Amino acid sequence: MWKGNLTCKHSSFIIIFFLILCSANSIDIKRSEFPHGFLFGAATSSYQIEGAYLEDGKGLSNWDFFCRIKGSIANGDSGDIAEDHYHRYMEDIEILHSLGVNAYRFSISWSRVLPRGKFGGVNQEGILFYNKIIDNLLVRGIEPFVTIHHFDYPQELEDRYGGWLSPRMQEDYVHFAEICFQSYGDRVRYWCSINEPNLFAEFAYERGTYPPSHCSPPFGNCSAGNSDIEPLIVVHNMLLAHAKAVKLYRDRFKSEQSGVVGIVVHSFMYKPLTDDKWDMEAADRALAFNTAWILDPLVFGDYPPEMRRYHGNELPKFASEERMLLRDSIDFIGINHYGTLYAKDCIYSCCICNDSSCNKGSDRAIRGFVYTTAERDGVPIGEPTGLPRFFIVPQGMEEIVEYAKKRYLNKPMFVTENGYSSPQNQVDDYHHDVKRIYYLDSYLAFLARAMRNGADVRGYFIWTLMDDFEWSNGYSVRFGIYHVDPHSLNRTPKLSATWFRNFLSNCSINHVESCNSISLMNKDVPMPQSE
Ligand code: NOJ
């Protein structure tokens, strides 16, 4: 087990690297610039780290199944072993504790707890596993911040009725959520219902790169699917599933457990490609078709007017009682923010995708008739990272938070994910990951600016604690602040882990001598108030 003692004094070597890197930007963010009780943590998800894919009664998940289809995942990788967190969870909790976080976001594997969904019973060993995690976090003063569903679900639900394409999935999800509330709600105060419905719908049903791999041209060539319609149906079912689970929580559990439930949205920021008014409108549309697609229904009870305007009957309609159920069904907004893209109008101009980072299908309603790209006149919007559409644009953090603040009347927000993946084969990333430090530090600085401007943000989670299974990219893309040796699975802190530890102890990057340890007790963490 790694037991390194990270202190401010040991950070001088970071500072040398770091000052060179960011002297031009003179970024120097400190924990003390965030309110007392602000949650600072790291985030992970079950399939990406647990492994133990059929152990102790766990059933086959959609990802277990998908990874076995040749060609679906880079290098034929899978999450069968992943980071072996199932067996090493105590070591990982010790690592979190040594970092000094006061919160940890993780997800519950649906197929570990309910191997066959509603078609079978509860797997008590699965329940026990998360009980051990929650209890061990709490003993160390770390708040469990639990995602109920993060992309993985029992394959049987896919085989029987087509998973999220079917409204039957709503009841299966509510059943799973109920088991989670019943089993863990006495100790868990923060729940994320579903992780990134928008990104999941896009990757699984528009591009076909996530299971069940549905798509149609020009988005991709899959054996089944309709990229113009299916993502809309999937999100529709997910939104209703969320709202039903929240009703259940508020009716049956909230008075005793007094927790809060939010949803997590994948939130790119979009900037107009030119200062043409149509491109400005296109940037607004891109935001509406990405972020507001999920959040408008859960705050106001219906899809964004921008979507209604451009979609025909393919955009499903909510019945009036469904609108009532949906309205005001989140206590907080979870923002996963990584990067910013340019947006160009495709209603009044012809859009041809001609750079590697642009998405196909820009001339379609499902994309809001917007072409998004990371390049303007051949110049990238920011530094590239390990993923083709994630460029480093720190001010995007302030802008996306400001967007959510304005559109949703400053509902409480958490940055549930933010992180950096190094371009592939960059060995430096194993230890001297100065770019990651620059990324995290500068995004945090812009988050602090948004908060000084009144945004009600209550917490921030780094994606991710350790290098893990990055979905269709397998292990080739690394986001971790800990390196994991692919053979021994030993965890080693990267410089960014040291930086985070120092930051959490209120070390300033430019003034090491000003390091003052501050301690945040669990009881100090404020609960977002739901109306
Ligand atoms: C968002 C997803 O929630 C997470 O699973 C993924 O690994 C990161 N983004 C990075 O792509």
TrEMBL record:
Signal peptide start and end residues: 1-24
Pfam families in the record: Glyco_hydro_1
Gene Ontology MF terms in the entry: hydrolase activity, hydrolyzing O-glycosyl compounds
UniProt keyword Signal present: yes
Keyword Iron-sulfur found: no
Keywords linked to the UniProt accession: Glycosidase, Hydrolase, Signal
Domain of life per record: Eukaryota
SUPFAM superfamilies: (Trans)glycosidases
Family under the similarity heading: Belongs to the glycosyl hydrolase 1 family.
Protein name (database record): Beta-glucosidase 47
Organismal lineage: Eukaryota, Viridiplantae, Streptophyta, Embryophyta, Tracheophyta
